[in-house]
Amino acid sequence: MGMNENAASRKLLSLIFLIGGAVMLVVSLIQDFSRSGASYRGALLVLGIVAIILGLYLFPTLKYHRRIIYIIFLFPLLFTFAVTVIIPLCLGIYYSFTDWTGIQFTKFVGLENYISMFQDPQFIWSILMTFVFVLLNMVLVNVIAFLLALLCTNGIKGGGFFRAAYFLPNLIGGIVLGYIWQFVFNNVLINLTKTSLLVQTRTAMFAIIVVYIWQYAGYIMLIYITGLTQIPGDVLEAAQIDGANPTQTLFRVKIPMIASTFTICTFLTLTSAFKQFDVNLALTGGTGSVPSFMGKYLTSGTQMLALNIYNTAVSKNNYALGQAKAVLFFIILACVSLIQVRVSNSREVEL
Amino acid sequence: MVGKERRRRALILTIVGILIAVYVLFPFYLVVMNSFKVQADIVANPISLAGASFGQLITNLKSVVNNSNFNFWRALFSSVVITVISLLLLALFGAMAGWVISRNNKKKWATAIYMVFIASMIIPFQVVMLPLVSTFRDAGNFIGIPLLSTIPGIIFAYCGFGGAMTVFILTGFIKGIPYDLEEAAAIDGCSPEGTFFKIILPLLTPVITTVTILNGMWIWNDYLLPSMLLGLNGQYKTLPVAVQSFVGSYVKQWDLILTAALLAIIPMIIIFLVAQKQIMNGMIEGAVKG
């Protein structure tokens, strides 16, 4: 009897929630569409959705209960993901073929945005600078991080302190770091360099790379340390017994054994360098003159791709063009990721 | 002989290590030390302690904290609220979704959802940020809940953007939990949601720590997303946005800028000192799995 009563009251409660939720949802949607817009309609919508979820949860069914729980559990993340990633991505690709102003668009322009961005010397220059930056970083960050990892794993005293100290800059966001280093270049190092390194495009690019290595090498070092400490001790012992000197051990044993770590770190530095925005913005703001490139005088010599996209849309108010550049940026990164998957799979790595 | 040689090598390596540490930590030293000085002393003598005094630190702190563009306590509060709530929701929703996906991994719909999440991890923020702002503006106007320039709006966005990586790491972990455990609970009459909250969720503590560290480092330091969704001069600013907005209006005022930088980095340094090991391990695991 108790069970039956319980089930009956549960059914009633479930129906109340379902019907109440549906009513609230419909009322708020009618207001949305009729644009009568009472201020409580947002709260009504949220309450309606919550009530429907509760009603579904309480719905007395043994057969479908598990399925209902699965749907409720997936809903929050799938919904936020769809609204913030999938819908804007589709809209963004669509807008890149229009004359979108950030608010509305009037017509399709076909490939016009894509054609005009390649006619802009500043954009070509930004792409070139990004590739130079990415390649130099990939090599330098990995070499320096690997050397630091060797240093920290070589029986040095206080290894834990050094690890933490080298990793420390990675905790700080790029905006804050950028301004700190702007101070270092403009007010401290200027005593050595006479003019600030940030003034000329070439030295300013060098400065961005220095700051980026300073921020990132400690993190990559941690991953190399993990790789190095996972090499089985007996392998190193065997190498020693065979009479291998430290250099031979390094090149013949250690480096081949952590090949997969090199793959991980290479692609990690690659993608993060591509997306670099904060340090670029805070350190130089993209400024730097280029006397002549493709027959034009450029004023944003240190502006890399991510910053170029942002400035095109937000500062110059050219949303459609900025969006088209962003789509190209996405395609480049997608290619890099596909290559990464290929390389990792062909190695059949496991870590 | 060998021992002596080895000791000498260790000494040289330690000295090299110390020199690099000095280089790495030097900018931090500059920030701290120059926060104790007036602008004139900073410009005249940026490296030495000359002119540094506690009184000046207090003066600098006061003018920065009360500055209308920086508004430190407000920015700190916004940053903490946004980061903490986003992390809690991401951990909970991520675990829920990860559990459903891993328990249905033979089914096509679950595989499809998982694949979409993984594929989405290559999407750079730049390609969605402009339509995201317009979507949030339009959707907010439509349903009557403002999503732009509000804290619920940005938390919603972080749940969406952090979801993929969170689900990826959590699903991998949950797959390793034996299914027998849940079957036994089901036979004892435990409901599926009860099984999840009472048995699975407590087992996830280590991996939730990892994703929380990864997401936390990202959300706390993120600049582009809050600058787009909250605006540089909006009602709410996170710390990085406040720093950017502050520096924009006080160019070259290094006494104020460096003090602001000091305030902005202190919370993260404190957390690092408390949870150093967890943070470094979390970052490593995230890299290796991601």
Model description:
The complex is a heterodimer of chains A (351) and B (290). Chain A is extended, with a radius of gyration of 28 Å. The longest helix of chain A has 34 residues, at 62-95. Chain A starts with a helix and ends with a helix. Chain A has helices spanning 2-34, 41-58, 62-95, 112-118, 121-152, 159-167, 174-188, 190-193, 201-229, 233-241, 246-257, 259-274, 278-283, 305-315, 319-347, and strands spanning 290-293, 296-298. Chain A has two domains: 2-114; 115-350, Orthogonal Bundle (MetI-like fold). Chain A is mostly helical and 351 residues long. By secondary structure, chain B is mostly helical. In chain B, 79% of the residues lie in helices and 0% in strands. In chain B, 44% of the residues are buried. The model of chain B has no long low-confidence stretch (mean pLDDT 91). The interface between A and B is large, with 99 and 91 residues.
CATH class of the largest domain in chain A: Mainly Alpha
Number of helices of chain B: 14
Under CATH, the topology of the largest domain in chain A is which?
Answer: MetI-like fold
DSSP helical segment count of chain A: 15
General shape of chain B = globular
Largest sheet of chain B: none
Q: How would you classify the quaternary structure?
A: heterodimer
Helix/strand order of chain B, N-terminal first:
HHHHHHHHHHHHHH
Largest two-chain interface: A-B, 99 and 91 residues
Shape assignment of chain A: extended
Number of strands of chain A: 2
Q: Radius of gyration of chain B over alpha carbons?
A: 24 Å
Give me the CATH superfamily of the largest domain in chain A. MetI-like
Strand content of chain A: under 5%
Low-confidence stretches of chain B: none
Number of domains of chain A: 2
Task: Report the CATH architecture of the largest domain in chain A.
Answer: Orthogonal Bundle
Give the tally of β-strands of chain B.
Answer: 0
Helices and strands of chain B: which structural class? mainly alpha
